[in-house]
Amino acid sequence: VAGNTGADVGTVAGVGSVAGADSVAGVGSAAGAGTVTAYGPPDRDAWAASADRFLDTLADHLAVGAASVVAILDPGCVVLGGEVGQAGGEALAARVEERVRRMSPLATVVRPSGLGGAAVLRGALLTARDAAQDELFAPRHR
To answer: Domain total for the chain?
Structure first.
């Protein structure tokens, strides 16, 4: 979550219960995604409608959590990270942003993460590297 000043104000924990794989699979099942109804070539129109229902339902769920964060922190930008943000991309981010706009008077942009699923690992490695550099190269006080 980035603040209006551009400073990183932290990560919201517990969003995995809304955006985790099990929850997303449940949303997909409720929206009829992944249902096979007949043999033969796929019905592209039916598939597209199912995908739209899935993204709309998932956006409804994510927007509730995002609007809660926006109401408290006013971050200015919410990034949909991890596998959900990567898979849903701009289509999901636009839907979530539209719903947050209806729920909150605070201007908030919603974007998919550009870092992919390894963002947490990358962040941990960068933090460890920075700590090691600080330890090695910081001036010693005698």
So the answer is: 1
